[in-house]
């Protein structure tokens, strides 16, 4: 019996589609497009085995004009028969392949791979069985299918005589053409990153480790942006092990370590250093050369951070790099302002001097990213004090930064820190008009900055003193904006008792190397590479494909999970098994504030804190299971 399905029910594609219709100018489908696509397609089909399951074979290929780069494999149902087809867009032929048959072969081979394994019908079955539920599992299966299609496409293209150069060109072109996203962000979408797809494909160590490092770098940057400094540290360490000459990785490694050190400083420590508000923002976002758990000063982290910065500078000398590494030098200056043995003004000044001399003398350096430039100015002002010129220049840079999409939040955070520093400078001037301005700036700061930041109580103390000095009643602490249940950094990793860390999106083989083989492996879906790895003694279960999708804490032996408020030096709290339901909900919100959802199984419900990346189950009024996972939106 045939089942009648709608036309073009489902299609697999080559790349992740972020937004459609971005490009207005549509190119036309010409004979030249069709000729090259057909030639490659027929040459691939000639060496391809006929797959089981299709009544109609071979499929047809069509060049379509959609205004963006992609390719699709799907089927339509005609008189009850499923007819497979492949489509490729004009933009793919022109911009990804530049009409080069060797490059096209991998994209078309990938689509034929989807048809060979019949991924379309598998996806239909999954939906019929689970509906819209179990998104994490569904997307993980999709990503596995993409890798399967990639491998098939590569082997088919080689079998048909296409070159390895074509493959490399194809991968680089897709990577350039699409919005970059990292392995961690990849957990909430249906395609792995191009870096991970390439790592999976290549079998020679050099290519493989290059792509693996690009992937780690990208992931590390995302963690830095989200203030997960420990997790970022691991990513950049991986890059420096494989590519010791990647100076950007050394610079970012130093930055992640310095930020962990800063996170450990409390208000008392900062008072002792007697400096203004430091800011974050100075790290590399692309590797051009490749294309603390407790409060208190931790000297080891500081020395490791400075060591990594110095390694970046040493590489600059040795490799004769053009990059002046101003960011690295500015970060070194900051490090000396918060030296564990006390502020070292001399060293900090020396590094700031180098940076400012370069900015004056080299016009190229004024091309510095405005956010990085602004953060250098704010940090230098924290040490040297602010005059009105410096404030005007910094505000100008921040305004420039805001014109770029995605910079808003960081720019606002820098503005807030600048308010603190401005207020601090005006307070000491003794001029009554200036003091009133300072008072207003302090109030703005206290409202805009999270009160969990270590600088907040310092600002409040100075605000109260200044209010009294000018004879005004200060506002109470509680009158400023309070932190809410949503104000936490997302959880991305679990730290075990012995200090080892298991991170979401971490490659499974790394985890197995760290923890050893699991006590039990349980497949989630028969025939799919998605399993639970149970570690009884650690009290954790890891859900993984090739990468970690979730860490499940489900026994008394499980470690506690630390959550932290955003902002440098943000407060923290601990979640653990057996903790009182009311206490957890007091921190994160109760069932009024959350979704109740099926995570990995149809017969189990969890209370989901989506923004935090945490799901919880309770039994008899206490926490009985904690799940750390990225749960994609439906
Ligand atoms: Zn695909």
TrEMBL record:
<dbReference type="Pfam" id="PF01435">
    <property type="entry name" value="Peptidase_M48"/>
</dbReference>
<dbReference type="GO" id="GO:0046872">
    <property type="term" value="F:metal ion binding"/>
</dbReference>
<keyword id="KW-0732">Signal</keyword>
<keyword id="KW-0482">Metalloprotease</keyword>
<feature type="signal peptide">
    <location>
        <begin position="1"/>
        <end position="27"/>
    </location>
</feature>
<keyword id="KW-0479">Metal-binding</keyword>
<keyword id="KW-0378">Hydrolase</keyword>
<dbReference type="GO" id="GO:0051603">
    <property type="term" value="P:proteolysis involved in protein catabolic process"/>
</dbReference>
<dbReference type="GO" id="GO:0004222">
    <property type="term" value="F:metalloendopeptidase activity"/>
</dbReference>
<dbReference type="GO" id="GO:0016020">
    <property type="term" value="C:membrane"/>
</dbReference>
<dbReference type="InterPro" id="IPR051156">
    <property type="entry name" value="Mito/Outer_Membr_Metalloprot"/>
</dbReference>
<keyword id="KW-0645">Protease</keyword>
<protein>
    <submittedName>
        <fullName>Peptidase family M48</fullName>
    </submittedName>
</protein>
<keyword id="KW-0862">Zinc</keyword>
<dbReference type="InterPro" id="IPR011990">
    <property type="entry name" value="TPR-like_helical_dom_sf"/>
</dbReference>
<feature type="domain" description="Peptidase M48">
    <location>
        <begin position="34"/>
        <end position="125"/>
    </location>
</feature>
<dbReference type="InterPro" id="IPR001915">
    <property type="entry name" value="Peptidase_M48"/>
</dbReference>
């Amino acid at each position: 019996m045939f089942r009648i399905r709608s036309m073009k029910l489902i299609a697999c594609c080559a790349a992740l589609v972020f937004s459609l219709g971005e490009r207005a100018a549509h190119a036309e489908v010409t004979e030249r497009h069709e000729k090259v696509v057909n030639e490659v397609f027929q040459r691939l089909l000639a060496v391809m085995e006929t797959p089981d399951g299709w009544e109609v074979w071979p499929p047809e290929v069509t060049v379509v004009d959609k205004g963006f780069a992609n390719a699709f494999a799907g089927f339509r149902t005609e008189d009850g028969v499923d007819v497979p087809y492949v489509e490729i867009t004009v933009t793919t032929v022109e911009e990804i392949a530049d009409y080069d048959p060797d490059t096209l072969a991998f994209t078309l081979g990938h689509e034929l791979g989807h048809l060979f394994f019949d991924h379309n019908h598998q996806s239909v079955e999954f939906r019929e069985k689970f509906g819209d539920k179990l998104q994490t599992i569904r997307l993980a299966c999709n990503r596995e299918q993409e890798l399967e299609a990639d491998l098939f496409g590569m082997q088919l293209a080689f079998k048909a005589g296409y070159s390895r150069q074509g493959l490399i060109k194809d991968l680089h072109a897709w990577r350039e053409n699409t919005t970059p996203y990292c392995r961690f962000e990849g957990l909430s979408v249906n395609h792995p990153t191009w870096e991970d797809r390439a790592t999976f494909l290549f079998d020679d160590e050099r290519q493989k480790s290059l792509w693996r490092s690009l992937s780690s770098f990208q992931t590390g940057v995302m963690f830095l942006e989200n203030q997960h400094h420990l997790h970022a540290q691991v990513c950049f360490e991986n890059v420096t092990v494989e590519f010791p000459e990647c100076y950007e990785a050394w610079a970012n490694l130093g930055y992640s370590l310095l930020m962990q050190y800063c996170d450990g400083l409390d208000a008392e420590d900062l008072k002792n250093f007697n400096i203004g508000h430091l800011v974050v923002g100075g790290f590399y976002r692309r590797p051009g050369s490749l294309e603390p758990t407790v409060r208190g000063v931790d000297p080891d982290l500081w020395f490791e951070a400075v060591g990594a910065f110095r390694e970046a500078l040493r590489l600059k000398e040795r490799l004769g790099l053009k990059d002046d590494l101003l960011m690295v030098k500015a970060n070194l200056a900051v490090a000396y302002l918060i030296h564990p043995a006390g502020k070292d003004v001399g060293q900090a000044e020396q590094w700031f001097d180098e940076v400012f001399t370069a900015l004056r003398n080299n016009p190229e350096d004024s091309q510095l990213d405005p956010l990085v430039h602004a953060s250098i100015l704010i940090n230098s002002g924290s040490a040297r004090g602010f005059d009105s010129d410096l404030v005007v220049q910094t505000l100008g840079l921040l305004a420039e930064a805001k014109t770029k999409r995605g910079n808003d939040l960081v720019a606002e955070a820098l503005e807030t820190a600048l308010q603190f520093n401005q207020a601090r400078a005006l307070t000491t001037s003794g001029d009554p008009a200036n003091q009133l301005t300072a008072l207003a700036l302090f109030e703005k700061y206290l409202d805009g900055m999270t009160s969990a930041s270590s600088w907040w109580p310092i600002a409040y103390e100075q605000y109260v003193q200044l209010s009294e000095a000018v004879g005004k009643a200060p506002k109470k602490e509680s009158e400023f904006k309070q932190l809410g249940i949503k104000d936490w950094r997302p959880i991305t990793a679990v730290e075990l008792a012995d200090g080892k860390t298991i991170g979401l999106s971490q490659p499974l083989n790394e985890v197995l190397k760290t923890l050893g083989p699991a006590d039990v492996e349980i497949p989630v879906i028969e025939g799919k590479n998605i399993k639970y790895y149970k570690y009884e003694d650690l009290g954790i279960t890891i859900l993984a494909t090739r990468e970690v999708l979730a860490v499940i804490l489900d026994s008394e032996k499980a470690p506690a999970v630390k959550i932290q408020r955003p902002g440098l030096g943000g407060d923290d709290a601990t979640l653990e098994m057996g903790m009182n339901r009311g206490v957890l909900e007091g921190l994160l919100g109760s069932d009024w504030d959350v979704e109740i959802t099926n995570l990995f199984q149809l017969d189990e419900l969890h209370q989901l804190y989506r923004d935090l990346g945490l799901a919880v189950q309770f039994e008899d009024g206490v926490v009985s299971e904690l799940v750390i996972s990225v749960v994609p939106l439906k």
